[in-house]
Structures are given as C-alpha cells and as structure tokens.
C-alpha cells in the first residue's frame, strides 16, 4: 500500500508540473543536483553496532517547484550472518505560492527486514514558510496532517521500540530545515522532524557537516538523534547514530 501511495504522490507532482506549464510560461532557470554517498555508521541507544551504508540524493528545481528525493541502504553482518538490511526512501515536493509561503507533499517508506517494523510508511501534505532566505543561510518551516502505516516485526518486540499491533492512524507532521554555508567549502545542515500520533510521537534531529575536498567530492559527518514519547519497559527513549561518508556530487 505504501508503495502505491508514493507512486501516486510522484504522479500527482508530475501532473502539476504539466498543468502549470500549459497555463503560464516560467522563465526561471532549472536546477538539477544529485549526490552519491558511501560511508560508515555507528549506532547507539537501543542498538550498538557498526555497519556500512550507501545513499543517493536528488534535488530538482524548476521555477516555483522543488523536489527532493533520497534513498539509503544499510547492511551489516554479525558473526558471518546478515544482521541488518534496511532500505528507506523519501520524496518531498514543494510549490512556492507567494511571500515566502509554499505548499508541500511528502512521502516516506522504510523496508526493514530486521528492524521493529517490516514496513513503516508515511504520507503528509500541508503549508510551509521560508523564514530566512539568504545566499548562505536558509530556514524552512512547514506543518500538515498525514497518515502513518506500520507493520510490526513481532520477532523483534523484545529488542526494539515497537507496538505489537499494525498501526494505521492519522498524524500531524512538522519540520524545520536549516542550511548554513559559513565558508565556501563548508556547509552545515540541520533538520528537525516531528510526527505526532496516537501510538507514539517521534522527534528526530539530523545534523550534518560537509566539507568540500574538490568540486565534486566532499567529506560529510552526520549525527541523527530520535526521541520517542512511548517505549516498552526497560528501554531507552532515544536512538542515535553517527555517520561518516564520502559524498560525490554529479
């Protein structure tokens, strides 16, 4: 079901582009950027392990429209056997309307064979505001209703933050995204994402620092921290991970 929702989201965004091109002529430049990353991840909190990761990020801007997409793969072996295999995909489209305001549609899908949920998907839509927009510093704030579906991995209940029932519920999602470029070769990005629902509320913070080595190659150090309002007994309310990656921009 989650795959179909993400497909519909992408088709709707494509249709919106086509409809707008028929009505108005936009002479704004088109911007396209893609990045490939390969790195090392260290997990802490309710999980303590080290593993390799790979990710692909895409950014496309055409006039008033902007689309960000990313896919990441996390795999690890323990004692010669596969211990982790997680694929996550995110897609977010924005349409600027006026005076810094924009409409957005967002979808995410996680397929995790050994995690707390086999499937963890979310779709949401709402309105946002570009609070700051300078050449070296930008801040975006948005909020909107959504729907969350989670299919629990019952074999992992004793070791993960998981509700033992299938979750289908309405949620409220809000995010704050900041980007600062204090130096020509240095970029700091931070994103705070809150998903509030009846089963659980999560607050996730992603901080990354990227230093350019060449025009196309950079070194990125990232830190992820997730807080849960509900956890099973004898478990911590947070999970964290530290990621070091080489980033190649195309």
TrEMBL record:
Short name of any one Pfam family annotated for the protein: DUF481
Domain of life where this protein originates: Bacteria
Q: Sorted alphabetically, which keywords does the UniProt record give?
A: Signal
Q: Which InterPro entries match?
A: DUF481 (IPR007433)
Question: Quick one: signal sequence residues?
Answer: 1-18
Q: Has UniProt tagged this entry with the keyword Signal?
A: yes
Q: What is this protein called?
A: Salt-induced outer membrane protein
């Amino acid at each position: 079901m989650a795959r179909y929702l993400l497909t519909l989201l992408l088709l709707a965004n494509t249709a919106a582009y086509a409809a707008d091109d028929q009505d108005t002529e936009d002479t704004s430049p088109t911007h396209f950027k893609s990045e490939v990353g390969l790195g090392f991840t260290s997990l802490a909190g309710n999980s303590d392990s080290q593993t390799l990761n790979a990710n692909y990020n895409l950014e496309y801007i055409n006039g008033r429209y902007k689309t960000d997409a990313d896919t990441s793969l996390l795999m690890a072996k323990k004692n010669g056997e596969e211990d982790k295999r997680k694929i996550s995909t995110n897609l977010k489209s924005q349409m600027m309307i006026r005076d810094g305001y924009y409409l957005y549609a967002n979808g995410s899908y996680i397929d995790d064979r050994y995690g707390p949920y086999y499937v963890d998907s979310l779709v949401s839509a709402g309105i946002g505001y570009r609070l700051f927009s300078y050449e070296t510093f930008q801040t975006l704030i948005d909020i909107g209703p959504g729907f969350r579906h989670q299919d629990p991995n019952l074999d992992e209940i004793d070791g993960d933050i998981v509700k033992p029932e299938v979750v289908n519920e309405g949620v409220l999602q809000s995010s704050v995204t900041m980007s600062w470029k204090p130096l020509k070769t240095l970029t700091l990005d931070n994103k705070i994402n809150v998903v509030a629902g009846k089963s659980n509320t999560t607050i996730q913070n992603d901080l990354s620092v990227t230093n350019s080595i060449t025009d196309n190659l950079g070194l990125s150090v990232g830190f992820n921290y997730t807080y849960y309002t509900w956890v099973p007994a004898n478990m911590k309310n947070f999970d964290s991970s530290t990621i070091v990656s080489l980033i190649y921009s195309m």
